[in-house]
Write the structure tokens for this entry.
Amino acid sequence: MPIPPELEGHKYISLTTFRKTGVAVPTPVWFGEADGKLYVMARGDSGKVKRVRNNSQVRVAPCTMRGKVTGAEFAATARILPKEDFPRAQNAVRRKYWLARLPFWSKENVYIEIVVG
């Protein structure tokens, strides 16, 4: 399924992941788009990465920098990419955000691939 038009042109999406108890945890994140998929950079030891490892079902919606949802929410599936797939995701994020090109980001970063639908 292609990226919903409601997400295109936005700087942030609210990525909602789910705890083992089922409690939803929304987080505003930068995202890149490529080949009909969304890509998010995150620290490997962050809560959202742990939650995606436990439950690949997520929800995404356009939002403000502070996380206020501004449009429709979509069900999606997320996965942590293996290191060999990082370049594609990294390029998608760096194309959109010049700050992502700076070298101060953690070496512990991983990339999450999100397929909407």
Q: What stands out?
A: The mean pLDDT is 91. Strands lie at 12-18, 24-30, 32-34, 37-43, 57-63, 74-80, 109-116.
